[in-house]
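Subject: Predicted fold for Outer membrane receptor protein involved in Fe transport, 983 residues

User T.R. writes:
Posting the sequence so we have a shared reference for the thread.
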Amino acid sequence: MSLKRAKRHNTLLCGTALRMAALAIGLSPVAAMADPQAVPAAPSDSAPDAAKGDREIIVTGTRITASGFKAPTPTTILDATSLAANAQPNVFTTIAQLPSLQGSTGTQVNTFSTSSGQQGLSSFSLRGVGAIRTLTLLDGQRVVGANVTGVPDISLFPQLLLQRVDVVNGGASASYGSDAVGGVVNFITDAHFKGLKGNVQGGITTYGDDAQYQVQLAGGTSFLQDRLHVVGSVEYSNEAGIGGGNFGIGLANGRDWFAQTTQINRGVLNDGSPQYIVRDLAQSISFTKYGLITAGPLQGIAFDARGNPFQFQYGSGGVPQHDKAGTVAGCYPGYCLGGDLSGNVDTGRSLQSSIERLNTYGRVGFELDNRNEIYLTVNIGKVNTHNQPVNGMNKPGLTIQCANPFVPALVQNACTNAGIASFVFGTSNAALGNTQVYTERRQYRFVLGGKGAFTLAGKDWKYDIYGEHGTNYSDVDVRNILLTQRFNQAIDAITLNGAIVCRDPVARANGCQPLNILGGQPSAAALAYVVPQYGPYQRTRQTQDVASISFSGSPVELWAGPLSIAFGGEFRHEFYRVAADPYGAGFANTPGGGNYPVDPVLVAGGNNWYAGNYKNGGGAYSVKEGFFEANLPVINSDAMGHASVNGAVRVTNYSTSGTVTAWKVGGTWDLPIDGLRLRGVTSRDVRAPNLSEMFAAPVTTTLPNFFDPFHNTTTLVIQSVVGNPNLKPEIARNTTFGVALANPSWMPGLNISFDYYKLKLNGVISSISANDMVQYCYQNVLPQTCNSFNLNNPAGGNYINVQPFNLASIRTEGFDIEASYRWRNPLGLPGNFTLRALATHVINYITDTGLPGTIPIDSAGSNLGNTPHWKWLAVQSYDNDKFSLMVQERWFSDGTFANNYVVCNPGSCPVSTANNPTIDQNFMAGAFYLDMGGSVNITKGITAYFKVDNLTNRTPARNYIFNNPALYDQIGRVFRAGVRFKY
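User M.O. replies:
I've generated the structure tokens; pasting them so everyone works from the same file.
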């Protein structure tokens, strides 16, 4: 980018205060750090909410748009140049690298999941409080959820037409409504783009997998004397993902860092040794790849792929004791170390889900005059993802009859000699194949609106009015998964009239085919019976309808400047409906049954699949709200500087939970010290319960021996996991204050900020177990649980509805540090050299379940969670008119598995408790990643570029079972290259 062009695109809006350096330089992924108003924008690219030639930018930190206002809430801004320079196939990845974004999901997260529906879902989490507490907007407007939790999928957003992304690090509910507890991420599109631009990119890992390619094209023009503006884009991206490895300890394509590290519970609390120990190469003693007899006289006999018996090699020098408990001397409870690891299944999890994105976007705007515009936007997109949750389908604790004709004669003879008729058996079911999960999300979003300005009583006012309708269809299909009841019937085989058949005559009459699970050679007929071609499915439809209007202006000129205000109202309606297959949801709940034949072997009420037992459900709620925000200048002098106070209030009525109020009070003070600013804000923020929490599709299971304290007996209970329509909004208190030094005259181009934050969230929605619900009611410590069960009908009507309550709380505090320095023409060279860094330090992150007998847990620094103590991002870049180079570092600090563990050595351990269990090691190394990129301007409009992520191929710590894909890079070195053009 030329210096002339950079200057034009980085015009600052804040007068003399805090003039920051031009921000859209080089390949830095961070375009602005200290000042939320330092937003690059060309007049021709701004919406006509003011007269042409005097355009202003709406910064997400506030609804106030008057010239000269500076928001008190720290806001990080990434411009289009920075987003493109990071060369990611999804801008979500670039944004998620910001240190304040902790716990965001993506294609590396939820890959182990079969039923969540969140595989491949890209959603942001600020301050580690979760995606459901981070509000994500498109052009300042809400987006229909891509999951029943209400969070949108960033993969469905238009990306090539992005002008910038604002990340508000702090509560913003008073300005933008529910969910903005951790903050706001706002995607701003270039509404008046003119010309044609495109991008073609490809990439691959150093292991030869996750092949990716992307094609993007966007164009815009105007008609009718520049009054009719038309822009549009189409984007296609495909990432192949990284599938699971083989059984055992081999990850995909030669990755060698998996060690089957396992936290083993010794089950002893007070012998002076730690209760938990962490060991590599852990081998389960309850199953093998093709089957293992796990207890009794024949314990230790395993089977190979052909069904031949052999003596299993236990690790640790383990010796089976041939007792009913399945004890193996010399091993730990449940595990040996080393030996035959071929049956371990954890390497089968996809390291990264595949993802295919197709996104189209269009906007038509017509300027009624040079101050007012009406517009229509259409965003239609589709995302397909695929993952493998794990290898095989573990089935420990099976009972196999010795007379089963599939049992080899050698083993049958051993049964006779031992005087037993059956044995206990466990298998990974490798012969049945691996489960595959496919998700598809389709979004249809339409917005009709108008924005602009008018004059009233001699004052200029701005308005923004729009209506939005969005629909998202989410389909989940699971393939290659067994039906539990059919499996149980098929493995119980007998010989009848010289043929091997299923024992149960009802099962035989309904197509049961005998299954040989002693080895790896089941018949095709048995496979088709146990693992049918049709699998579990879920079909979800979500809709969102919004009507919004807001005004802003400066009605009064006061002693220190104009009083600026904004006010407005909004109506929103959220709805969802989900339908599932009859084998999971139950035939009574699924009229017609589709292609799923009725089978009396299966449970009519559902829950027949090994996993993926989806249910039917639905719900809706409406929201009415109004807000008012004001900015009052209080100081405006050379001697005292410039200061203003900002306040906002929002009153919201939910059809389900009543009325709640959010507010904020803050201010900024530009001191009479060159470039120095103080800022702070405190706010009351809210998050309303989402559709899933209130109206979750019920999941029903049977608890056959549930202890009833009211009648002092055990009983059969039907447990249903359901939503709770009586939930109340979560209430948060956010406080942020800091200091910023921006572009001082004694060092032009220097920007530094420090902001402390503290967030306390009460009434956090969380669930408790069926047993705890009954016990807490019985003890009268949580009477609100008493209405969730009935244990007075032992004849079959006892039930417990496990549902969420507003019980828990979260408290976190820390600080953000942001800095940048831009050096023009370094050492006399043409171009710009830029240094930038962002860091977040989490002092504490304390969660209190609110349940009796528990203690608050501080998870700051737990690298199994989302909040390491330190996380930073640093960039160094150089650019001129011909080329650019960039180096980027990403780092987070060492941590623990969990902070409540007590680390001790054998012989010195205190008594292990539920709140403070003892463990022999509690260290989880941090990670440092180095990235590098660059570009060459081939012609004025064509640029070739490259990017290498994780240049040193840094692998996660070997304790894989504790690895956290939300923090650690599981992919390894990635090469990307492409060509961009713009005319």
